[in-house]
Amino acid sequence: MLEENKWTFRRADKQFSLEKWQKTIDLMTDLFSAPAGFIVHKTDDVYRIIVSSEQQENPYDAGAELSADDNIFCKKVLRDMAPLYVDHASQDSQWDDSPLVKDGFESYLGVPISWPSGDPFGTFCVMDFKQTHYQPSFLELIEQLRDMVEDDLALLDNFTQMREIAMLDSLTNIYNRRAIDLLCQHKLNISKRLGFDISCLFIDINSFKPLNDTYGHEVGDLALICLADTMKECLRETDIIGRLGGDEFIALLQVQPGDCIDSIADKLNTTFQVNLEKRGIPVTSLSIGSGVIAQPKENFAELLKRADEDMYEKKQASKAAR
Ligand SMILES: Nc1nc2c(ncn2[C@@H]2O[C@H](COP(=O)(O)OP(=O)(O)OP(=O)(O)O)[C@@H](O)[C@H]2O)c(=O)[nH]1
């Protein structure tokens, strides 16, 4: 049985299929004539079964969790990062308080699964309600199957890294234009469904060209990085922040009751100037335009255009005032 809901690996990634892992576990339990086999993922405080073999006698479904405080076989495998074979657990006093032994399991053969970095991912294991007498070749077999799972993890790791690289602006490490278009439209769709308000801030650095021309491109780059960091500092994790290109940035805010967009914009502007000064970069200000999603049918491109126009008006007004 697969754990479809909570598991962080989404089959939408297409590169990776939990069904393949399910087939591997089912095949392994068949070959071992065992009633239960698992792929277990270790998180901070629990051991979570992410794939569980499909025999009726198997008491644990995918999604079941065992506490990291419990005396369980997988914990020892990951502590030693070595295979473990327990052929007759009730004859070995170290497992007396194990909840698995209390559930009737007598035999365990498991191997550690690692991420490509070498960090522990979890375990690949087969369990039986009776004493077993596995040949050494059984361990070899389970290690071979584990290697297939590790190959998938390496693929997934590469894919995740590549996707992140493709979505991030290489200078500021916030979302790039392509990611912004995708993520913001998605957020608008969700906001319509869940009924929360969205506001878009269009942010442009004032007098950026003179800053570049006077102090050099590297100083300009530092100012861009400083703005990205300021946005991360001032906005919420649920907000989407990105760089559209040049000195133009955007934030898509999930508006909460009591939020005042003008105060958020003022805070961004003030904090940016303070941060520039702290970093020894010549101080300049921001022009920030905004748009609040008005009609349910409006799409992200239209919202962005309104925020851009508002920013342009504010910039012209501030230039006229100087
Ligand atoms: N340092 C640096 N400069 C960049 C980058 N991308 C674009 N620019 C420069 O950013 C400047 C943006 O020009 P403008 O928007 O006209 O600059 P501005 O002086 O802020 O004009 P106003 O918005 O009217 O205040 C141009 O000089 C670009 O060459 C970058 O990645 N790094």
UniProtKB/TrEMBL annotation:
It is an enzyme of class 2 (transferase). PANTHER family: DIGUANYLATE CYCLASE DGCM-RELATED, REGULATORY COMPONENTS OF SENSORY TRANSDUCTION SYSTEM. Residues 196-322 form the GGDEF domain. It comes from Pseudoalteromonas gelatinilytica. Coiled coil: none annotated. It comes from the Bacteria. The lineage of its organism: Bacteria, Pseudomonadati, Pseudomonadota, Gammaproteobacteria, Alteromonadales. This is diguanylate cyclase. It catalyses: 2 GTP = 3',3'-c-di-GMP + 2 diphosphate. InterPro entries: Diguanylate_Cyclase, GAF, GAF-like_dom_sf, GGDEF_dom, Nucleotide_cyclase, Rev_trsase/Diguanyl_cyclase. It holds the Pfam family GAF. Its EC number is 2.7.7.65. The gene is yeaP. PROSITE patterns: GGDEF.
